[in-house]
Design brief:
This is ATP-binding cassette domain-containing protein. By secondary structure, the protein is an alpha/beta fold. The chain has two domains: about 140 residues, 3-Layer(aba) Sandwich (Rossmann fold); about 70 residues. About 35% of the residues lie in helices and about 20% in strands.
């Protein structure tokens, strides 16, 4: 579905990303997590065609991305700025469908269907400012779903809502993913969220941003906020991702690095 090869990006003299190689399969939900400043959002913007990378390439379904592709939708963190306050909820969701060349009636019908899938069918005639923050983010997700993209990118989409709403929205994403089989790439700073949602967790390191490791998530598909988070495998994966994000290396990794460098000190500190 998506193949990223040798991607690097700089803002002037500041190197943000370097040597990113990543593949995402059809129907996969991949989460990207890493420390603050590792270039997660920049990577997503390069994939979306919003920022041309300084080097490397991004290929979606065999076609190189050199602008915003037609088969892609993005859900941003700041829902309050991504919804137009003078349009109804239904018309906000229907707006991108003009690009599909659909008639007005078809656009509205598709928008209502997408709103129903996120539990907001009854809010179609309201305006964004009449809804709570969590409901506004549901509208943003519905807008992406209505477009029926091959790939949905989500840039820390739940970072601006409260904890309970965040859990509800996480479960909504899992529900949508199971029901539609959509390919989703989600960036988050939340370690627990990366494990709870992902089929695979990609951990980035910083200075400059690069892929440190990829961890498959073998948790059952039917996840829930209480049972899954108490599962021993979830706890193990959360600890492993946390270790990688914080740059902590195991004694065995430190020994391998020392051997490779002929006894020289390793790049990152060893902590037990």
């Amino acid at each position: 579905m998506l193949e990223i090869t040798g991607l690097g990006h700089s803002y002037g003299a500041h190197r943000v990303l370097e040597g990113i190689d990543l593949k995402v399969g059809e129907g996969e939900l991949v989460t990207i997590v890493g420390p603050s400043g590792c270039g997660k959002s920049t990577l997503l913007r390069c994939i979306a065609g919003l920022v041309p990378p300084s080097e490397g390439k991004v290929v979606l379904r065999g076609a190189p991305i050199d602008g915003v592709p037609d088969d892609l939708a993005v859900v941003f963190q700041d829902y309050s700025r991504s919804l137009l306050p003078w349009l109804t909820v239904r018309d906000n969701v229907a707006l991108p469908l003009r690009r599909r060349g659909l008639a007005k009636a078809a656009r509205r019908a598709q928008a209502v269907e997408a709103l129903a899938s996120v539990g907001l069918k009854d809010a179609a005639g309201k305006y964004p400012w009449q809804l709570s923050g969590g409901m506004q983010q549901r509208v943003s997700i519905a807008r992406a779903l209505a477009y029926r993209p091959a790939l949905m990118l989500m840039d820390e989409p739940f970072g601006s809502v409260d904890a309970q709403t965040r859990e509800d929205l996480e479960d909504l994403v899992l529900q949508v993913h199971r029901a539609q089989g959509m390919t989703i790439l989600l960036v988050t700073h939340d370690i627990d969220e990366s494990v709870y949602l992902g089929d695979r967790v990609v951990v980035l390191a910083r200075n400059p941003g690069r892929v440190r490791d990829e961890l498959p998530v073998t948790l059952p598909a039917g996840r829930d906020q209480i049972g899954t988070r108490a599962d021993a495998e979830f706890v193990r994966l959360r600890a492993e991702v946390g270790r990688l994000v914080r740059g902590v290396v195991k004694d065995s990794e430190a020994a391998d690095a020392l051997d490779a460098k002929g006894g020289a000190s390793v790049e990152e500190p060893v902590k037990k």
